[in-house]
Amino acid sequence: MNIESALAADIQAVLKDLYGLDQGPKLDQTRPEFEGDFTLVVFPYLRASQRGPEETAQQIGEALLERSSLIASFNVIKGFLNLVIQSGNWGAFLEQHWDQDRFGFGTPKTEKVMVEYASPNTNKPLHLGHMRNNFLGYSLAQLFKAGGYDVVMANLINDRGIHICKSMLAWQRFGNGETPESSGLKGDHLVGKYYVVFENALREQSGPAIEAALQGQFQHENQVVQTRYNQAWTKLQEAKEEKQIAKIKDDIKELVRNQSELMLACQSMLRDWEAGDAETLALWKTMNGWVYEGFDSTWKRMGVSFDKFYYESDTYTLGKDLIQEGLDKGVFYLKEDGSVWIDLRDDGLDEKLVQRGDGTSVYITQDIGTAQLKYEEFAVDRSIYVVGNEQDYHFKVLFLIMERLGRSYAKGMYHASYGMVDLPSGKMKSREGTVVDADDLLQEMVDAARETTEALGKTDGLPQEELNALYESLALSALKFFILKVDPKKRMLFNPAESIDFQGDTGPFVQYSHARIRSILRSAPADWTQAPEAEEAMSETEINLLKTLAQFPDTVNQACLQYSPALVAQFLLDLAKAFNRVYNEHSFLKETNASLMKRRLKMASMTAHALRNALNLLGIQAVERM
Predict the structure, then answer these.
(1) Closest Cα partner for 495 from 418, 423, 573, 570?
(2) Domain closes at, from 305, 339, 357
(3) Which pTM does this prediction carry?
């Protein structure tokens, strides 16, 4: 019996009888300071009842008390009807669900969902920011699977472009044939090293010219470049606001950097790549191969996986046929230079370039084409893009374009936007080599888990192989839980020391609660799974535990609707705390009343199932012993 669903059905019947309404009610958990298990807000029914809020709530409560065997009592607080469930119903709920491994998961649906996440550049190793993306994307995929959806986990690798050529050119000039084998570095770390080498060399090479340009002393033989600089310098002299001045200075710096010998060589390399130059392609394949090997080992350790890989080197030419289709339909328009644009000002946005005048693609071009490719390959009803919030505008534009092109799947496209991750020391910067490397952080977390566990004396009797697996699991649970418990849309500050605490609102605390239950069940008598001999009254803490367990199905559903694993993390904390209160208040194995012992052991078993399933939704392994 799903108590909330059964109660909702009874309320719907009462609303039909009283007011002729045929709509399902929305129930909330009653707030702790009030008596009750579920709360019905009656304001939506006032027009039909022709009564005030309190009178309407009283009328619905009295009708429910007469009709529903679920209700023990009710109370009215203004327009809120608080309903108290008969305690015997909680016992029935436990008996029906305690041994259901997949309690809380939804029934199979016909809707297919693609979750695209990770999407790294192949010019640097994964870092802490990537970890939030990977953990969020993987968790969303598991949530939609639990919700009953058919899910495809996709990864679009950014393996081409000027940033990739920076690493290639630096290795070519300064690498002296260094390889992962000769250096002892993971392939992605080696390639990332040369990305930083390039940026340092570029800073040294272009620094004097930038300083001169910021003093108004920039001269260039290319008249187009000189004109752009002159215009920017004039704007700088006229600018008054600090933000505007900073933006113009950044534009000047970028203009000068792009005219340096290193950047011109890099741009030439990109043109060679696009022209199919054999030597350039060979270097690109070699260095990308190093990176993929590095990525694969990091993803495996992080516990994330993918069903489908897309590569920007394959997709960057896509979308041009849809641009032509949009021109034919009047969705896009041509400018005098041959460039193609869309006007989104009626939607509160701006005019947006979708194809350059020379016919080459911009990012939005290939994203249009890739969206169509995904649909053609998988017929997805919903396509979720897990990308940082700095791309919010880009995805608003993309989704509007697909709608105007008349694509049926456009309504199902969603940007799972998330905030950046900061450290106590401040922001991370890839080009300066000041990012927190994912591999280093993982190892630091494992070392911290080992030190914390040994300090608490929790390692006695466990073989070394099991201990190593435990430390790895604790480290990942600490890292994932700390990141995923924050609302995805919020910027977050990551503190490794806080995340590993066994007593705080952390992954290890939840894992420890699960391990405690498994220890109890391993020592339980053989007949504990039998039905209790007699009904026994439940304590308030026991009822609260069952009420918390009953929230799991709705938590999974709401987490899907809100694209937020943070709801699952909060459920895990609530459930672990609710069980620990029962554990501290009541005996389990030492209970002399056999009926009470069996019921509590079943509560423990159902809690363990829910903890394990909810942890898995966050990509966290539930450990058996700690």
Answers:
(1) 423
(2) 305
(3) 0.90
